[in-house]
Design a protein that fits this description.
The chain is α/β, with parallel strands linked by helices. It has two domains: 160 residues, Nucleotidyltransferase, domain 5, CATH 3.30.420.10; 46 residues, Orthogonal Bundle (Arc Repressor Mutant, subunit A), CATH 1.10.10.460. Helix content is 53%, strand content 15%. It has a five-stranded mixed β-sheet with strand order 3-2-1-4-5, with helices on both faces. Helix 2 crosses helix 7, helix 4 crosses helix 5 and helix 8 packs across helix 9. The longest helix is centred in the last third of the chain and has 25 residues. The radius of gyration is 19 Å and the shape is globular.
Amino acid sequence: MRIAGVDEAGRGSAIGPLVIAGVLFKKENLSILQTLGVRDSKLLSSSRREQLFYEIKNIALKSHVIILSPLEIDKVVNAGRKLHKLNRLEAQIMAKVIEVLRPEVAYVDAADVLADRFKEHIAENIPFKVKIISEHKADIKYPIVSAASIIAKVERDKAVSELQEKYGNLGSGYPADQKTIDFLKKWINRYETYPDFVRKSWKTAKRLKNEADTKQTKLT
């Protein structure tokens, strides 16, 4: 039996892409992941994640990654309620990953508060029969999903690192990171609009732009 795990990295980030990754293993080989020490990517150091990234890619039957740009995310989010639209988008992309991997069973980390609803949204986008197990914290419960989370996290870190090299210290890209907030403030005050690698639909980005616009209006 072929088993897949699917997870994402960068969902809540204000800067950089959303990365969704999947890995495919034979059921009898899943124990290898535990032997390697595969765990949820957030519980590993960056150097350990990178090491496991290559080990997982080498032993997996197949892996697949889809990277969504901030422009693609903004287009969907601006069309309606943010969380609802983002959940549907993530389900659609996970379905694409599963379609490429073609497993009999797919474990996914549920983005929706209703894990079964998230499963249904994935299933309706897959043209073949597959058993989908959608659970919260699946990246902690199942090593196959942990493996996918490592692939997704390393790919996103690469993308953010490339932005860092080009534009300077922008932090992790998440609104909770003060370095990210400082970067966004400096950028919007200087250029009056955000670059393509910022999610303009995000509440934090909108707030900082409104503050900058108000400040500019007072000056003029």
